[in-house]
């Protein structure tokens, strides 16, 4: 009587399945609870990984609710790689699909912010340019394109995601107000820092990511946000070491 | 088949600890008597950031053992080529003193289950594991060490004893062995065999590293003791005694103290390492 890994795997993830035949104790009695050790190890370790990955979601929902959600999630989306540092990529979509959470519409974007912070934490190292590099002729600067650090992340949301994150991670942070918020994550050294972007900031960065020149991206952004403050957004990028290259020679796209 | 299985193992005959990032500063300030550190390979497979920076720093001061927990060497499926490539990259730049993995499986049908799952010991599983170890050693260009598992149950289909199975894997592939003394104690208690008898049957000459850890206590459906390999407590006295039993027969070996859950403050881990170090010092080289 052989026990295939397929049978073992199915029974591990589904407690309603019987313990596979052919597994015994030392007196050849059926394994029973002994099999549950493995079931428990899998469920507990993956639930713990979800708590670590999504501390703000856990705080918002409460530990018990998070345990329950993780239990459903880990069976629907078991890890597909041994790199547990990236486990939970499907969690925002999963949350969006939970009907009983539909009154908490901001949860998926909060989960996206937590995922983005983890991706930033493990992203490749890079060196930001010296702000002095921007002290060139204005025409040359406006036609330049930029490259961003792998650890820089941008999250646009119709919810006050940055404020929710602050309120749940900082003492004395202000209560979130209903508004759309765009968040920029920079990683000056090793710790990802979420920053609230001013209006237009996300459009400008996204245009630069598409390869537009600084000037063209500025014009695009001004069309939608006449009050766009390029200086404030640029300062966040420079302080966070998020601009790694200034291309002054490359023709503008 | 690679020869000289223990020759590429450059771990010192001293006590080491499983590295936890919260101990980074204290290890650099006060590491005596820790002779080396072990890391879990999968935690250092990101592209950059603090984990890799800390590892680079530590590797300048300590011999490092890379211990994989995700290769699924015992899996029925082929090894994950992407994961093997990541491992080759890590072992390539770090050039660790040792690389080890487990006699277990963790991935099936593209699902990684984040646990070390058990295998039957049969001719078929033996052939499959040897083929996987051959592949790992060929890709990494070095021999590896294979660790014995903690067992909570037995397979009706098994035809090999675990020590004989491990001896045969080592003979066929040229790999060395990582002897986890706590796992022997846990399995022996759970499956009613003598831990000393296991050690007597085990090929100690193949051992390149010893692991020590703590376990939790539970019971099965019949009230039989069921020990769980949790790595969440201190090493118990019978396991320390079993370490002495091993060292008296094997001679000095690199000994690791592991703690993966409820990780204590550095001084507690350090004192366990000191106890392991003292056990080694009692053994003539």
Automatic annotation (TrEMBL), chain A:
Residues 5-95 form the Putative DNA-binding domain. The keyword NAD does not apply. InterPro entries: DUF2063 (IPR018640), DUF2063_N_sf (IPR044922). The keyword Ribonucleoprotein does not apply. It comes from the Bacteria. One of its GO terms (molecular function) is DNA binding. Signal peptide: none annotated. Keywords: DNA-binding. This is DNA-binding domain-containing protein. It comes from Ruegeria spongiae. The lineage of its organism: Bacteria, Pseudomonadati, Pseudomonadota, Alphaproteobacteria, Rhodobacterales.
From TrEMBL, chain B:
InterPro entries: MbnB/TglH/ChrH (IPR007801), Xyl_isomerase-like_sf (IPR036237). It comes from the Bacteria. Gene3D superfamilies: Divalent-metal-dependent TIM barrel enzymes (3.20.20.150). It holds the Pfam family MbnB_TglH_ChrH. NCBIfam families: PRK05409.1 (NF003818). Belongs to the UPF0276 family. This is UPF0276 protein M3P21_13020. It comes from Ruegeria spongiae.
């Amino acid at each position: 009587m052989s026990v295939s890994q397929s049978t073992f795997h199915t029974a591990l993830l589904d407690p309603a399945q019987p313990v596979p035949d052919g597994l015994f104790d030392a007196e050849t009695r059926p394994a029973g609870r002994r099999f549950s050790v493995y079931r428990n190890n899998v469920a507990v370790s993956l639930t713990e990984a979800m708590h670590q990955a999504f501390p703000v979601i856990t705080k918002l929902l409460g530990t018990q609710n998070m345990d329950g959600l993780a239990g459903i999630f880990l069976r629907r989306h078991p890890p597909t790689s041994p790199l547990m540092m990236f486990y939970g990529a499907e969690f925002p979509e999963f949350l969006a699909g939970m009907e009983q959470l539909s009154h908490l519409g901001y949860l998926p974007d909060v989960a996206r912010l937590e995922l983005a912070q983890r991706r930033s934490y493990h992203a490749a190292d890079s060196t930001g340019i010296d702000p002095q590099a921007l002290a060139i002729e204005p025409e040359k600067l406006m036609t330049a394109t930029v490259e961003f650090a792998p650890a820089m992340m941008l999250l646009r949301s119709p919810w006050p995601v940055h404020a929710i994150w602050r309120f749940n991670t900082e003492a004395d942070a202000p209560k979130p107000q209903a508004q759309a918020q765009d968040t920029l994550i920079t990683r000056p050294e090793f710790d990802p820092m979420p920053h609230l972007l001013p209006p237009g900031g996300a459009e400008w960065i996204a245009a630069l990511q598409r390869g537009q020149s600084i000037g063209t991206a500025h014009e695009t952004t001004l069309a939608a946000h006449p009050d766009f403050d390029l200086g404030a957004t640029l300062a966040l990028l420079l302080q966070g070491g998020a601009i790694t290259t200034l291309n002054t020679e490359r023709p503008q796209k | 088949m690679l020869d000289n299985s223990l020759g590429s193992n450059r771990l010192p005959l001293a006590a080491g600890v499983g590295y936890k990032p919260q101990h980074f500063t204290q290890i650099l300030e006060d590491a005596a008597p820790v002779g080396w550190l072990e890391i879990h390979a999968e935690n250092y497979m990101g592209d950059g950031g603090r984990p890799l920076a800390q590892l680079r720093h530590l590797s300048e001061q300590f011999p490092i053992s890379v211990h994989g927990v995700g290769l699924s060497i015992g899996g029925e499926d082929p090894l994950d080529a992407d994961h093997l490539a990541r491992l080759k990259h890590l072992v390539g730049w770090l050039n660790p003193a040792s690389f080890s993995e487990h006699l277990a499986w963790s991935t099936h049908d593209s699902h990684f289950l984040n646990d070390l799952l058990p295998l039957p010991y049969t001719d078929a599983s033996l052939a499959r594991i040897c083929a996987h170890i051959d592949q790992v050693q060929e890709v990494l260009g070095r021999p590896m060490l294979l660790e014995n598992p903690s067992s909570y149950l037995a397979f009706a289909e098994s035809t090999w004893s675990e020590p004989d199975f491990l001896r045969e894997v080592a003979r066929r592939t040229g790999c060395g062995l990582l002897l986890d003394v706590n796992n022997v104690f846990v399995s022996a208690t759970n499956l009613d065999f003598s831990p000393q008898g296991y050690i007597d049957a085990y090929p100690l000459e193949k051992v390149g590293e010893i692991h020590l850890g703590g376990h939790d206590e539970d019971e099965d459906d019949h009230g039989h003791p069921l020990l769980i390999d949790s790595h969440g407590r201190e090493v118990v006295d019978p396991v320390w005694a079993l370490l002495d039993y091993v060292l008296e027969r094997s001679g000095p070996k690199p000994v690791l103290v592991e703690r993966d859950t409820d990780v204590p403050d550095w001084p507690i881990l350090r004192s366990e390492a000191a106890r392991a170090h003292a056990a080694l010092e009692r053994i003539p080289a």
